[in-house]
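Appendix B, example 12.
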Amino acid sequence: MSEPGAAGPSPAAIQVSRIMRPDDANIAGNVHGGTILKMIEEAGAIISTRHCNSQAGEPCVAALARVERTDFLSPMCIGEVANVSAEITYTSRHSVEVQVNVMSENILTGAKKVTNKATLWYVPLSLKNVNKVLEVPPIQYARKEQEDEGKKRYEEQKLDRLETKQRNGDVILPVINPDRQTKEPHTVGYSQSSLIHLVGPSDCTLLGFVHGGVTMKLMDEVAGIVAARHCKTNIVTASVDAINFHEKIKKGCVITVSGRMTFTSNKSMEIEVFVDADPFVDEPRERYRAVSAFFTYVSLSKEGKPLPVPQLLTETEDEKRRFEEGKGRYLQTKAKRQAQMQQAAQQ
């Protein structure tokens, strides 16, 4: 191990590979976005925990704090191998930035394609005191520009986390067995869905708190149910906006994962997902908001071609407000993507 405080070389990138099984996919054979998100988080947790324990000091586990916007560039299918590679690209005093690439491989033909690129942020928590955030060993940068760019990304995500926390008081009442016969199709209430899950040991880290990947997989499941109820077609995850982990979820908690449609364009739909935790074991306290995010889905035909998405029917003022906010996010993302394409064409 290195001496504390000394900058060490950038940790070697790691790769995690696994063949996709039928239980990883939907009925059309497309791998669930949540399955891929879980693999991404596992790779990030391994490399960041390894790095945070590379110097002498208190042993720790890296906990997921945030996932930046993640686009699903192409679908992955049953029988393909998911190759997930992760590397540390920036460290601040108390956080680690990990960049992850996912490539699908057809092991019969050897064909490969990039399916995902993601950026995750972790914080090291002491094994002795879970509420104690430890210092992160600094890394060496090949160029000063790399450190400056990393610091800029760190400040941007820090600001966004604060803004998200301020608007995080919204409430979704759990919908377990709603009478959908009384609701108009394509309304928010018709597709709104919830899932309740008891957090067990297999869901948790060494510290007894839920793996971020487990939470993201449950969120994707609920968002997928909302999208399928709205379209009644095969649906796949297109992207996930930044996911902020506001508070840890402890073993023994009952979590309620709730999703509702907020916006539809001609070919996509935005679903807002909240995770609320009810602690029942050891530390009784009131329900609290643990995680929140926006998922974007697209509707596909049996041949895998994009289908038009039915327009969301808004009924209340809050639904209309959320629709306009979602439209703003959609247009902003669209403009950013067009700017990136123009920039790439000029290079």
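The two ends are 43 Å apart (CA to CA). DSSP finds five helices and twelve strands in the chain.
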